[in-house]
Structure formats: structure tokens, C-alpha cells
UniProtKB/TrEMBL annotation:
PROSITE patterns for this protein: ACYL_COA_DH_1, ACYL_COA_DH_2
InterPro entries membership: Acyl-CoA_DH_CS, Acyl-CoA_Oxase/DH_mid-dom, Acyl-CoA_Oxase/DH_mid-dom_sf, AcylCo_DH-like_C, AcylCo_DH/oxidase_C, AcylCoA_DH/ox_N, AcylCoA_DH/ox_N_sf, AcylCoA_DH/oxidase_NM_dom_sf
Full protein name: Acyl-CoA dehydrogenase
UniProt domain Acyl-CoA dehydrogenase/oxidase N-terminal: residue ranges: 12-122
Cofactor(s) needed for function: FAD
Matches recorded under PANTHER family: ACYL-COA DEHYDROGENASE, ISOVALERYL-COA DEHYDROGENASE, MITOCHONDRIAL-RELATED
Species annotation: Nocardia terrae
């Protein structure tokens, strides 16, 4: 069986973490993945297990209840979880990278002390509300407003497709909102909204094509009043802040995508050795073996792309282009491998309870969320001066 971790290229602490998460994924996540997918139910018991392992605190310092690891450690965990269940992996990705990370990066001492230990413990989830009905790729088109009234912000508007925003353990959503204008240009800021604030509503969950066990809702804000001190980071820096968060998030989504791509390889290798047709295993046909070889190459190349982007990020160097490249090639690798794995499984590949069928449905959103394929191409083009 293909096993990148056994090549010994990772330092011991990363390798041990990845192997621990791999065991958890195989023993705890995989057995219930098909059931939660079929029932569209949020896997609270699995998420609690991940919380016990400290996964939600991986990249945060111990003083905030974190594990004292880094963003690459988070990526390795996402890769392992993404192999067996993308819904569980995206719950971790959004919880850490979109829910807690903005508070860690841009929060003041009070906000960090109030929220980070809770979010890092995994006992509570945070969400990030950027997308709106009229503002997706063009996220600067946000229409949600926040008006300062004495010592409160009054927020009105709506968000859509927001991950982790309506679970029983969701405690906050950080939203982008227009807080004024400067020289005719919109001033966008980020504000923390605790989910028990009157006027905040997580509308009924979407009926999605995939990621069925992940939690996604439209949100509405109807005269939501929060203290002025809930402003996250500087007023007017909301746009710059979320660009930073999305740049990082793309590396995490790439890691999750590599997991999906590799999961499809592993399933296909097993099946190709086992399934007999015309008196021999289907893998004895070069047409099948070559298909799997190409899938393995895609997963490997995408992995090197996200390792590279993560290494740049952790060394404090510019990483925007590499993060976009990693997200682009890894999401495409996941979708391509899911399509090929489904073909290798024949009719069984079209049955929802099979992992490859789930990857087939789940992988499409990897080419859309946290910046579509076209947005990644725009970013890469811009970095090339085009
Ligand atoms: C399951 C799920 C979870 C999500 N979670 C979150 C979340 O937690 N928080 C959040 O804020 N958002 C979330 N999103 C939203 C997601 O990030 C957006 O859907 C995505 O950014 C695309 O925006 P859009 O859907 O408005 O598409 P649009 O921006 O309307 O794009 C439509 C199409 O046009 C293309 N396009 C747009 N502009 C250009 C251009 N200039 N050149 C070429 N092509 C272009 C796009 O690539 C796409 O193919 C989630 C979405 C889903 C489905």
C-alpha cells in the first residue's frame, strides 16, 4: 500500500502526529462516515474525539489552550482525515482556519483570552461569514452593514454557505461587514458575533451534493447588536484580513484535497487487486494499473505543492502564489482521482455507501470553496504580473 509517511522525509514529531490521526481516522471516523453521510447528520461524537486529541488546538500556542504546533501539523491532520471523510476534515479545517485563526491573528488580548481556549479545545466551534448572495468570488461586494450606535455595532444583512455556523456547539461567527466608506471606497471590517445574540439566525441547513455530514447554513442578521469592542482587528482592515486568512486556508484545503486524492488511490489499489474479471484481478490489466499510477502521481505532486506552500508560510516568506497553486492542483487531483476511482469500482462506485462514491460527490466543492479554480488562476496570473 502506498504510504508517503513511510518515506521518512518528515521529522519525527510530524510523522507521529500524522500516524496518530491516521489511526483515529481508520478506527473512529471511517466506520461511521457512510451513516452520517446518508443521514446528513453532524458527527458530534467524532468531533468530540478529535477535540480530545487536541486537533482543534494544533497550530495555537499552549498559553491559549493549544498544542503548540503549527499550520503544517494541521495540514497533516487534514490530509489523514480527508482520506476517509471529507466532511469531518472540513469541520476541522473551518473550525481552526476560519473559526479560530482570525481571532488568533487579529484579535486583541481580551478577545484571544475570551475565545481561543474555548475554540482550541474543540468543545466550541467558530465560523467565518464572508460569502453573501451577491458576493462570492468578488468578496469585496459585501452588502452586510455594521453601523456604530454608541458603544455597539448594529449589524444587518445576510451571509450564505457558511460552514460550522449552525451546530449545537457553534458559539461565534466572525463576519465581514461594510462599516463606512473612505474616498468613495467601501470600508470593510470584521466583527465577532456570538451566536446567542438576538437577531442572529442560522437558517435551515442546505441540502448539499456532498460534504453531507458537514454543517452549512445561510445566516441572517436583523438588527444584531454586539459591543463595539467585538471589532476584530483594525476598522477598515477586514478585506486585507480575510485575504490573509484565505491564503492560509488554501494550503489547508489543498492538504484535505491531497487526502481525498490519496484515499481514492488506496481504495483503488485494494479493489484492483481483489476484483476479478475475465479470470484475473482487474489490476492485472495495464489500463487499470496505469490509471492508478496516474492517480498516485497526481496525489504526490499535489502533496509536494502544499508542503512547499506551507514551508514558505512557516518561514515567513511570501506564499500567496504557492498556496494558490497548491489549492488548484490538489483540488483538481481530488476530483480527477475520484472520477477515476469511481470508474475502477464499476457499478459499485455508483453506490452511495462506497467511499469512492462519497469522494466523487464530496470532491467537487474542493474546486469551489475558499476560492474557485478560476480565482486561483487569477491569483497566479496576478503574481506573474498579468
Ligand atoms: C459547502 C460550502 C461551504 C462553504 N463554506 C464557506 C464558509 O465557511 N465561509 C464563507 O464565507 N464562504 C463559504 N462558502 C462559499 C464559497 O467560498 C463560495 O461559494 C465561493 O467562493 C464561490 O463564490 P460563489 O458561490 O458566489 O460563486 P461566484 O463568485 O458567483 O462564481 C460563479 C462562477 O464564476 C466564476 N467567476 C467569478 N468571477 C470570475 C472571474 N473574474 N473570472 C473568471 N471566472 C469567474 C467562478 O470561478 C465560478 O465558476 C462555502 C461554499 C460551499 C458550497
Amino acid at each position: 500500500m502506498t504510504d508517503f509517511l513511510s518515506t521518512g522525509t518528515l521529522p519525527d514529531e510530524y510523522r507521529e502526529l500524522a500516524l496518530t490521526v491516521r489511526d483515529f481516522a481508520n478506527q473512529v471516523v471511517a466506520p461511521v462516515a457512510a451513516e452520517h453521510d446518508a443521514e446528513h447528520s453532524f458527527p458530534y461524537e467524532v468531533i468530540a474525539g478529535m477535540a480530545d486529541m487536541g486537533l482543534f488546538g494544533l497550530p495555537f500556542p499552549e498559553e491559549f489552550g493549544g498544542m503548540g504546533g503549527d499550520y503544517f501539523a494541521l495540514c497533516l491532520a487534514l490530509e489523514e482525515l480527508g482520506k476517509v471523510d471529507q466532511s469531518v476534515a472540513i469541520t476541522l479545517e473551518a473550525g481552526v482556519s476560519l473559526g479560530a485563526m482570525p481571532i488568533y491573528r487579529f484579535g486583541n488580548d481580551k478577545q484571544r483570552a475570551e475565545w481561543l481556549p474555548l475554540l482550541a479545545s474543540g468543545r466550541a466551534l467558530g465560523a467565518f461569514g464572508l460569502t453573501e448572495p451577491g458576493a462570492g468570488s468578488d468578496a469585496g461586494g459585501t452588502r452586510t452593514t455594521a453601523v456604530l450606535d454608541g458603544d455597539s455595532w448594529i449589524i444587518n444583512g445576510s451571509k450564505q454557505f457558511i460552514t460550522n455556523s449552525g451546530t449545537d456547539i457553534t458559539r461565534l461567527v466572525t463576519v465581514t461587514a461594510v462599516t463606512g466608506s473612505t474616498d468613495g471606497k467601501k470600508e470593510i471590517s470584521t466583527i465577532i458575533v456570538p451566536t446567542d445574540t438576538p437577531g442572529f439566525t442560522a437558517e435551515p441547513a442546505y441540502n448539499k451534493v456532498g460534504w453531507n455530514a458537514s454543517d452549512t447554513h445561510p445566516l441572517s442578521f436583523d438588527d444584531v447588536r454586539v459591543p463595539a469592542e467585538n471589532l476584530l482587528g483594525e476598522r477598515g482592515r477586514g478585506y486585507a484580513n480575510f485575504l490573509r486568512i484565505l491564503d492560509e486556508g488554501r494550503i489547508a484545503i489543498a492538504a484535505l484535497s491531497v487526502g481525498a486524492a490519496q484515499g481514492c488511490v488506496d481504495e483503488s489499489v485494494r479493489y484492483a487487486k481483489d476484483r476479478q474479471a475475465f479470470g484475473r484481478p482487474i489490476g492485472a490489466n495495464q489500463a487499470i494499473a496505469f490509471k492508478i499510477a496516474r492517480m498516485e502521481a497526481r496525489a504526490h505532486m499535489a502533496r509536494t505543492a502544499y508542503y512547499d506552500a506551507a514551508a514558505l508560510m512557516l518561514s515567513g516568506k511570501p506564499f500567496k502564489k504557492q498556496a494558490a497553486i497548491a489549492k488548484l492542483v490538489a483540488s483538481e487531483a481530488a476530483m480527477d482521482n475520484a472520477r477515476d476511482a469511481t470508474q475502477i469500482f464499476g457499478g459499485y462506485g455508483f453506490m452511495n455507501e462506497y467511499a469512492v462514491a462519497r469522494h466523487y460527490r464530496d470532491s467537487k466543492i474542493l474546486e469551489i470553496g475558499e476560492g474557485t479554480t478560476e480565482v486561483q488562476l487569477m491569483l497566479i496570473g496576478r503574481e506573474l504580473g498579468l
